Amino acid sequence: MSRGPGRIQQMILDLIASDPHGAWTVGQICERVYPHELRVLKKHRVAVTRALRRMELPGTWDIRQMSKKGGEYCLGDKCDEESTLRRIYFGIGGPMGFAAWKQNHDRSSFWIEHARKSALKARLYRDASPIGKLDIEIADVKEDDNRLRMLGASPAAFAANKQRIAELIEKKKELEQAAAHDHERVA
């Protein structure tokens, strides 16, 4: 029987409550959880990452890997534009502070628009019906398929997408049949 969130999990929840539009890398969370340490050690990263993976995050908050495998993870709200923009900033890195980067439209206008679209897409997915969610997932896989085609990827790269699309379409048909069956039973 669980006694509630542990110390690290509670600190993460407090961090979210203090800045609901924020985003933090695991390293930044470690600096807040272990403020008296001279530097962030591997054991600190492991403890924070474990806490993040085991805890139930509020609302649409999630933890995502920033770029390549083995790279930094970042906590953020995928439906919030500001949080998404901060994740992008942490993912591409930069020598300037976040506020200066955001104000410099020469470098960030593309990323601001990207964050806006990404957050809108996440909100649409969150609010969609189960069948609508499958339609969005199918469109995402088809978009990925088109991107691979433009990059000249090998046929093996397309095979996984074709399989995924077939699975999603089958799942959608099952949901539609179940919905039609429930509608007939009610009528």
Largest sheet strand order: 1-3-2
- Percent helix among the residues? 55-70%
With helices defined by DSSP (H or I, 4 residues minimum), what is the helix count? 8
Global shape: globular
Arithmetic mean of pLDDT: 83
Strand tally:
3
Structural class by SSE content:
mainly alpha
Outline the low-pLDDT stretches. none
**Sequence of secondary-structure elements:** HEHHEEHHHHH
Radius of gyration: 20 Å
Q: What gap, in angstroms, lies between the N and C termini?
A: 44 Å
Content of β-strand: 5-15%
Oligomer: single chain
Largest sheet: 3 strands, antiparallel
How would you explain this protein's 3D organization?
The chain is mainly α and 187 residues long. Helices cover 68% and strands 7% of the residues. Strands 1-3-2 form a three-stranded antiparallel β-sheet, with helices on both faces. Helix 2 packs across helix 3 (42-54). It starts with 6 loop residues before the first helix and ends with a helix. The mean pLDDT is 83.
Quick recap:
By secondary structure, this protein is mainly alpha-helical.
Could you outline the blueprint of secondary structure elements for this entry?
Layout: H1 7-18, E1 23-25, H2 26-33, H3 42-54, E2 61-65, E3 73-77, H4 81-92, H5 98-103, H6 105-127, H7 130-151, H8 155-186
Antiparallel strand pairs: 1-3, 2-3
